[in-house]
Design goal:
Blueprint lengths: L2 H16 L3 E7 L4 E7 L4 E2 L8 E2 L2 E7 L4 E6 L2 E6 L5
Antiparallel strand pairs: 1-2, 2-3, 4-5, 5-6, 6-7
Amino acid sequence: MNLRRALGLLVLLTATLRAELEFSGFFTTPQSARFTLTDPATKTTSGWLKLGQSFAGYTVESFDAEREVLTLKYGSESLRLKLRDAK
């Protein structure tokens, strides 16, 4: 396998693994907001995070309460996660 192909496969695999992170819950008060993330691959949860805190290499950047979308930062990339549907 040549190096270019191996790197392409690695990038694809990494993107696939990172896409597994879920936005699993939030609560807001007049003073603050807290968010929970879940990594289904490892079955770990973040606990309650504030803006600016991190989990699994992702930093909580912003929250759109109207759309229930959490924006995370991973290096120079942004990831927008919709709140997971209730089971």
